[in-house]
Amino acid sequence: MDADRVDGSSVEDMASAIAEGRYQAIGEILEAAVVRGERRWTYTDIFDHVFLSRSLGIPIFLTLLWAVFAFTFALSEPLMIIIEEVFGALGGIAGAGISNPQVASFVAGGVFGGLGSVLVFVPPIFLLFFALSILEDSGYMARAAFVMDRLMQSLGLHGRSFIPMMVGFGCSVPAIMAARSIEGEKDRLITTLVIPLISCGARLPVYILIAGAIFGARYAGTAIFSIYLLGVALAIIMALIFRRTLLKGEPSPFILELPAYAVPRAKTTVLHMWARGKWFLIRAGTIIFGTVVIVWFLAAHPWEATAGGEVIENSYIAIIGHGLEPLVRPFGWDWMAAVALLFGLLAKEVVVGTYGILLGVEEGALGESLVALGLFTPLTGFAFMAFVLIYVPCIATIATIFRETNSYRWAAFATAYLIILAFVVSGLIIAIGGLLGFS
Amino acid sequence: MTDYSIKTGKGLGIYASALGAISLVVGLVEISGGWGEIIPGDLFGGFVLLVIAATYLNGVKGVFQGRYEGLSFLVGGLFLTAVFGVLYLLMMGAEGLMYLLGEAEALPGIFDLRPEVWILLLSLPLARRVGRLTDGMAGSRY
């Protein structure tokens, strides 16, 4: 390597020069050792010529991402109905077969109404991870990072941030941990702060419930895709704001090896899907179940005043909800939304479980009830989805930010900015939507 | 120097232009609200077709010159056509399952096929021809 080139340069320049020298040496060795076939082009060259194209690379990435969500939503719908019917039948059996009214209320309302309404989202979560695993195993995901790097560099961001952000579509916690691979401290911190804006799988049940209810099966996939795009757009905007204000500096260079394309193997893809999706089942049996029990208790007590959970307006949870209602009333949401969002701080799936308990209906009728009771219009429902996207993903994410930054200040800052941003963006959606004539 | 004959390239180019033009028109109709029952209005579906059209049309000049640079866009276009054609077929299958579960009024029929599926069928002859040209090609360079 040319010593003069390294001398006097920044750490980033040196890293770039070392990598360049390393690849030059590899190229020379391969040139001398490998005998090329007659054909100059390979399948990898063919696909890279298109997928990495300057003009088509990003549009193709967006179309494939849309395909992932359309696939997830459309195919999971009948599977969800089957699970709903199973839980509905079990709830009915439990309600009729248990003599103790408190236990019967807990099993029917808390377990089957609350936890059951969360577990019906197993199919979309697993299908989403299945589709993302196909993209990853085929070698396309690395291309997506490469394609987005051009856009991110042009915005003054770091290309490697995109990989943790993609991990964030699964869960924010491993995504924040994946940001460790980013060398520059400022780049790493910016990525850590914006990852919560990338919509994780835990938020998907909320979108499916609301979008399915207010936009119908035909447009629900598109509405959900819009929310995911909003998350990516906000992450880029916030990263840009942090780069220009709190964490000034130039992004460090991005070096990425592109693997050859491969036809994904069914077994590997299913294993990847399972590895990513099993956390949902684990959470369902731990934090979601625990929170749902608390919500059920608050919704069914005082037992006499609520007539065994039948008159929800007299419950402890209604008192909490009415106390919080002024915060969300400007967005057209009622006290139930306030309570759902409050408990959603523990785990986003609980938002759905809370509605399941508060409305006291079977899983299949939850969406219909939301619309029939006038709790959401298309505009207020979309704003609610945006709020769920933006405000703190869960307690575990904030704890991970604290652990990774080793600073309670950054964790507190992340919490505060996400909540403020959620109010601002949801307010803008309501205001702009209202001006455009949406109800 | 060409990678395959100009005559082959011209045939591929004309077919790809036609597929690109059809995708472009259908995509624009979908974006602008649809046309009766035949082409449903679908903003993102229309955007997808515009991207497919752009991919095909990007490769036309190159294939007329008999070059792999052009052929690669045809492969990309065919890949996207296949992805979305199969996706809409799967969605129809899901609708059929919904009918069996009593959640849909009617079983989807041939007239419910999305234009993307017809475009997939139209692309099959091109896929066959392109497949012959790329047959035996290595997966990667090393």
From TrEMBL, chain A:
- The Ferrous iron transport protein B C-terminal domain extends over 224-276
* Database matches in Pfam families: FeoB_C (PF07664), Gate (PF07670)
Give start and end of each Nucleoside transporter/FeoB GTPase Gate domain: 118-213, 281-406
Q: Does the keyword GTP-binding apply?
A: yes
**Location of this chain's protein in the cell:** Cell membrane
Q: In what way does this protein cross or attach to the membrane? A: Multi-pass membrane protein
Q: Which UniProt keywords apply?
A: Cell membrane, GTP-binding, Ion transport, Iron, Iron transport, Membrane, Nucleotide-binding, Transmembrane, Transmembrane helix, Transport
Q: Which domain of life is it from?
A: Archaea
* Spans traversing the lipid bilayer: 56-75, 81-99, 111-135, 155-177, 189-217, 223-242, 280-299, 335-358, 370-402, 414-438
Record-given protein name: Ferrous iron transport protein B
Gene name? feoB
Automatic annotation (TrEMBL), chain B:
Which residues are listed as membrane-spanning? 12-32, 38-59, 71-91
- Per UniProt, which keywords does this protein have? Membrane, Transmembrane, Transmembrane helix
Query: What is the name of the protein in this document?
Result: Uncharacterized protein
Annotated source species: Candidatus Methanocrinis natronophilus
